[in-house]
Amino acid sequence: ETCVYKNKDAPVEARVKDLLSRMTLPEKIGQMTQIERVVTTPPVITDNFIGSVLNGGGSWPFEDAKTSDWADMIDGYQNAALASRLGIPIIYGIDAVHGNNNVYGATIFPHNIGLGATRDADLIRRIGAATALEVRACGAHWAFAPCVAALRDPRWGRSYESYSEDPDIICELSSLVSGLQGEPPKEHPNGYPFLAGRNNVVACAKHFVGDGGTDKGINEGNTIVSYEELEKIHLAPYLNCLAQGVSTVMASYSSWNGNKLHSDYFLLTELLKQKLGFKGFVISDWEALERLSEPFGSNYRNCVKISVNAGVDMVMVPFKYEQFIKDLTDLVESGEVTMSRIDDAVERILRVKFVAGLFEHPLTDRSLLGTVGCKEHRELARESVRKSLVLLKNGTNSAKPFLPLDRNVKRILVTGTHADDLGYQCGGWTKAWFGLSGRITIGTTLLDAIKEAVGDKTEVIYEKTPSEETLASLQRFSYAIVVVGETPYAETLGDNSELTIPLNGNDIVTALAEKIPTLVVLFSGRPLVLEPLVLEKAEALVAAWLPGTEGQGMTDVIFGDYDFEGKLPVSWFKRVDQLPLTADANSYDPLFPLGFGLNYNSG
Ligand SMILES: OC[C@@H]1[C@@H](O)[C@H](O)[C@@H](O)c2nc(-c3ccccc3)cn21
Question: For residue 298, what are the contacts with CB-CB under 8 A and spacing of at least 6?
Fold first, then answer.
């Protein structure tokens, strides 16, 4: 007789109970241990009963590894896990936060702040479904998405990972969960993990809770708010995620009123698990336990104790797994961490693995390879870009709007640091953790798209920085398109309190805008300082956020095939000394308010 847990027709809870009852302490603690691919080998997995593997941003099998190379790597790990005594499959997690962005050739969608400008929940759901296919194609089972942070201060280095400052918008766009995991049937119990099938991935609502509300936007900082404000602004999206059966939640590095989330029993256990009824598992962030003590990593045994007891179920160690396993084993043997806490954590992990069908389908479905970067997905990304663009200015008076641009003029000048840089266009979390510059993957830069879009008699002159002779003969051009913005960044590296346009973007605009009609396209992960230069001197101004690989979504709108639909998902400040500046504040004096956006018919 096959044991209950191996019986695919047995109820999930019976399979969980049966398997748990067979497990030794090392096997249980192994399930709670997530390690990074650089320290992962088949023997490491089998010897330590490892339950999960991840790759950090930019940790590839090798540069420009194809999706099939990723699948070979992950299936190699999986076969090791399946060879263990109980044959419990690993769950492999990856940061697919705007497409399967670690993997060369994947479709790269706009980052969340651009998606926030679309206000289109169904679009985001479709993005989730497409992303899930490309993630499964590489062998991964789990995407560390959606980030449902509320962007309360754009000085935060992770602004672009947030959909909006407004929790209502974030709640709407948490539909990514249903896209990634599939839509649960209406009778699905709230808070219970769900996964539709092999074309879906486990989702991860992050970072619980209040990650976007830290003081001055300091990454991993302290969110100082009342419980009511925490509930209204930061917790709300998690209710929507739980209602969609989100299977995992990632704890935040940040603190709430001085208490580190990773050691906060009230929030992780009493609120999320008991009051809200979350039945999936909580994963820590990367080396988050080390951050619980000063200096970093000191007294690690105590960090393990307070985080596991607070409610962390799986630890993204991700390198010192021997230390973690040793300390947690010691803590259980001494009774400082109870076996019932261990069993609760392992039950949650096993529940997700059974729900995700990993026991039935542990290896990559190679038939999905063709979905990676496929035309249909790139068209979806292109649609997303179109809907994410926000028109901030169009002509100096509505009498004669500057956009849509005439695509049949004699000659146009395209210039600026971001006009022909796919890496800049995609931003952070693309191929590398912080992002890169240059032709980093398969895609279409804005310059490529402009060349495609203009009439065949129209000459396109491109200069990254306008040359002296160009500046001396601007009358040769009907108009200029200047593309400037932020260079890629991630997390703390992106914390910034000046928020000016880098790489002397202002100078390029100023040099041109006085002399010929100039459209400025801004690539940024957040609002930047626009006055006095850019706003006054530019004939038209488009906020493109971080659009990803499908640059034609921008020319579709700029040349008038489609109208602008984007609405600001975040208040646009005049000066940084106004920050934090959100629409729900009592004094509100933005340059452009939350929800602002012109179109071809607006006055
Ligand atoms: O990539 C895995 C997770 C990701 O899912 C989280 O959203 C994010 O907070 C995060 N930061 C690091 C990370 C931080 C510092 C050094 C190295 C890595 C790793 N990770």
Answer: none
Does 168 participate in catalysis according to the annotation?
A: no
- At 398 the pLDDT is 58
d(CA 143, CA 92) in angstroms, rounded, equals 9
pLDDT by 10-residue block (mean), the chain, 603 residues: 91 98 98 98 97 96 95 98 97 98 98 98 98 98 98 98 98 98 97 98 98 98 98 98 98 98 98 98 98 98 98 98 98 98 99 98 98 98 99 83 96 98 98 97 98 97 96 96 98 98 89 92 98 87 98 98 98 97 95 97 76
Question: Which residue stretches of 400-441 are H helix?
Answer: 422-426
Q: For position 168, what pLDDT does the model report?
A: 98
CA distance 41 to 28: 20
Q: Give residue 532's pLDDT.
A: 79
Q: Distance between CA 443 and CA 225 in Å, rounded?
A: 42
ipTM above 0.90, yes or no: yes
58 lines ligand 1 (CB under 6 A): no
Distance from Cα 265 to the centre of ligand 1, integer Å: 22
- Given the residues 220, 491, 556, 565, the one annotated as active site: 491
Q: What are the residues facing 35 on neighbouring strands?
A: 53
Q: Ligand 1 atom closest to Cα of 144? A: 5
- Model pTM? 0.98
- Answer whether 56 contacts ligand 1 (Cβ < 6 A): yes
Strands 142-143 and 248-251: unpaired
Pick the residue whose CA is nearest to atom 1 on ligand 1: 56
The CA 166 to ligand 1 mean position distance, Å, reads 24
**Which DSSP helix (H) or strand (E) runs through 394?**
strand 390-394
Kindly give the distance from the C-alpha atom of residue 284 to the centroid of ligand 1, in angstroms, as a whole number.
10
Bridge partners of 414, per DSSP, are: 462, 481
CA distance 378 to 384: 10
Ligand 1 centroid from CA 316, angstroms: 9
What is residue 41's predicted lDDT score, i.e. its pLDDT? 97
Cβ atoms of residues 261 and 252 within 8 Å: yes
The active-site residue out of 95, 120, 211, 285 is 285
The whole-number pLDDT of residue 147 equals: 98
Which of 491, 492, 493, 495 has the most ligand 1 atoms within 8 A of CB, as the residue to mutate?
491
CA distance 526 to 545: 7
Do β-strands 248-251 and 411-415 pair in parallel, antiparallel, or remain unpaired?
unpaired
Instruction: Please give the structure tokens belonging to residue 574.
Output: 């005049």
Question: For residue 285, how far is its CA from the centre of ligand 1 (angstroms)?
Answer: 6
180 Cβ contact partners less than 8 Å away, ≥ 6 residues apart: 128, 129, 131, 132, 143, 145, 146, 200, 201, 202, 203
Residue 285 among the catalytic residues: yes
SS3 helix, strand, coil % of the chain, rounded to 5?
A: 40, 15, 50
Task: Round to whole Å and give the CA distance between 446 and 453.
Answer: 10
Mutate to test the pocket of ligand 1, among 285, 314, 320, 431 (most ligand atoms within 8 A of CB): 285
Q: How much is the pLDDT for 225? A: 98
Q: Is 286 in the pocket of ligand 1 (CB under 6 A)?
A: yes
Distance CA 505, CA 503 (A): 5
The C-alpha atoms of residue 579 and residue 196 are separated, in whole angstroms, by 43
